[in-house]
Amino acid sequence: MTRHHPDSLSLMEYSAGNLTEPHALCIRLHLDQCAHCRSRVDTLNSLGAVMMAEQPKVSVSDTSFEQLMSRIDSAPEPVSPIAEAPRMSPLQKLLGDDINDLPWKRQLGDVSVLDITEKFPGQGERVVLQKLVAGGKAPAHTHRGTETTIVLQGAFSDQKGVFNQWDFVVLNEEDEHKPVAVGCEDCITLSVLSAPLKLTGTFTRLLNPFIR
After folding, report:
1. Which residues partner with 188 through β-bridges?
2. CB of 40 closer than 8 Å to CB of 70
3. pLDDT tens, 140-198?
4. Nearest-CA neighbor of 108 among 135, 140, 148?
5. How far is Cα 45 from Cα 12, in angstroms, rounded to an integer?
6. Which domains does the chain have, with CATH numbers?
7. Is the alpha carbon torsion for 98, 120, 93, 170 positive or negative?
C-alpha cells in the first residue's frame, strides 16, 4: 500500500499536462498503483473538461484552489475495479527489460546506477535509475536542486520514514538523508534530478567535484 503520494499541485500540473516528460512518468507510475491519487486526477480531469467547455469567463478567488482540493480529498475512496489482464507499464515500454537485468554500473559502495537521460531528449533534467542492495546504505547526501523519486522495487528508510514500492517523494537542498534498503530485496528507484546531489560524509564529500 502506498503511503507517500504526489502533492495536490503536482497532480493538478499532471492533469493539465504541464509537467516535463520525466516528472509525468514518475506520477504515471504512481497512479498505475494508487487508486486514491488516480481518483483525484480523474476528478481534476473532469473539472478541467467542464471549465474548458464553459464559454463565459469565471472569476476565481484566492481560496478556489484550496476549496477544490478539499472537495477532492473528502470524496469517498474509489471501489477497487475488477482485476484486469496484466499490461506493460510505461517503464517497461521505455526500457524493454526487467529492471533487475539492466546494465547497472557500480557507483559508490552499495549503490549502482543507470542513467537513462538520453531517453528523454530535449529535457534539462537528469533521469536515473538507482539500485541499493538489500540491507545496503547509500552515502549521506543532500541536493543542489530538486530530486523527484518513485520506488519501483523494494523499500528504503531514512529520517522521514519508510518508503515502499510505488511511494513518491520529492527532496530539495533542505533535505539531508542517508537511505538504507530495508527488506530482503534490492531497492530500485527512478529519480529525476534538476541538479547533482551533494555528498556530505566526512570522506565522500571529496568526490563532489566529480559528480555531475
Report:
1. 131, 153
2. no
3. 888 888 999 999 999 999 888 999 999 999 998 888 888 999 999 999 999 999 988 78
4. 140
5. 9
6. 8-73 (1.10.10.1320), 90-210 (2.60.120.10)
7. positive
